[in-house]
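Lab manual, section 2.4: Encoding a predicted structure.

Procedure: take the sequence of the chain (495 residues), apply the prediction step described in section 2.3, and record the output as structure tokens. A sample record is shown.
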Amino acid sequence: MAENVSVDIGAIKAVEETSATSYRSFADAARSVLDLLERLLPGTTVFLAHLDRTHNVHRIVDARGSTRFALTSNQASALSESFCHHMAAAGAPHLCNDVPAHDVYGALGMQSTLRAASYVGVPLELSDGARVASLGALSAELGRFTSDDEQLLRMLARVLATELERESHQRDLRRLNDSLREQARGMGAVGRVARALAGGEDSRRAVCRAACELTGAPIAFLLEPSGREFVSTAMAGVQLAPVTIQPRAETSGRAFTARESYFVADARRHPALAAPLVDATGARSALFEPVLRDGQVAGVLFLVWKTALDALPEATAGLLRVLSAQAAVAIQQVGLHARVESLALSDPLTGLASRRVWDEELPREIARARRNEAPLAVALIDIDSLDAFNVAHGDRESERLIKETASLWRGALRDVDMLARLDETAFGLILPNCGLGEAVDVVNRVRAATPRGQTASAGTARWDGEEPAELLVARCEQALQSARLGGGDLTVPAD
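Recorded output:
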């Protein structure tokens, strides 16, 4: 038993190191993940495959391990004849320890070629739900894989999916920036915005300055949706508090929902512009230029002239459309940067603090408890029987269960308490100024909030005033193990 725990901890640490690594490319990440799997699943063949639904092809990207199955890079087969296609489509289980006897896997062309005994695989799922690839392992030995192996693949598949999306976003941004730079050659204002975008900085104010330069408008705002309102996130030519506009169908609705330019020749008498805004900017004419992303309004460039215009020249309108496309990239970059920062500090599925934050925060709380001579309790909570739930309901519902659980558990805690997601099913809880008896009461309240008829087990411990974070967590782990051995749905306090 002790040896298995050690292996599990070693595997978890290896996955954490892989997750925290910055890769130059998705290919580097894939090589690192497969090298790790080769070490952790000896005697098996591990592989990454592309699920090309456009061409109905299952293509091996790379493989490692035993030469028993002779999988090679770029090796292609019919998608419908592959294990991974049926696994990703939820037509067959992620884990099969008797492939020849399975009614789906045993009848596939892939099995007639490879003659595998055991298979485990998980999809690489992007944030939009698309399953574009698979991470799998094969063995010539019946009963070779465990649910822990599946969990290992699942964690590493998330690493690869994140890297794939990051690289795809960067590639899309580079392509769009290149296109914009070609169109804007010789146009100084547009070129400056493109350089700002290429530098990765927040370019929204540069967009506003360029809009003023292109059109001769002295004032420009970039407005972005926030709930039912549009709020200024950048401006040029004026210094005002953030401008908030709530579009109304009978007045300003069209200006904020149209997918083409909306010009206002007389801003002083037009219902789309509120009188306070007209007074503050001296507006005489105005233009609402939509900022579109994937056909949807992601923002509005709002330009103000202090002298009346009959119309915007067509050549200027064309340049403004180019600038609007750049504004969409600027908004997207800000969102991507925020998302990357969020992913570094929070769990992408639940939004809770990540293990990284947990590892940094627990020693701080211990130091604070030592300074203040205050009690401190810690708990580890694990969702019971999540594997069975996953088999019965599928990956998507399992993820929804985890998200709902995290939200409900967080709602049962004080603001000063910290709940972190440590791995697929386990969560950590820091309870400042809390004794052991109080901690048990809190944890029982949290566990009772577990949704969908599921249960949870927990181990909790009070800091003894001397031990480091590692020993405190180890005591919680021992208590959690006792709760599991006790049948689950139980909180066990550590001695």
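Check your result against the sample. Residues 1-7, 179-186 have pLDDT under 50 and may be disordered.
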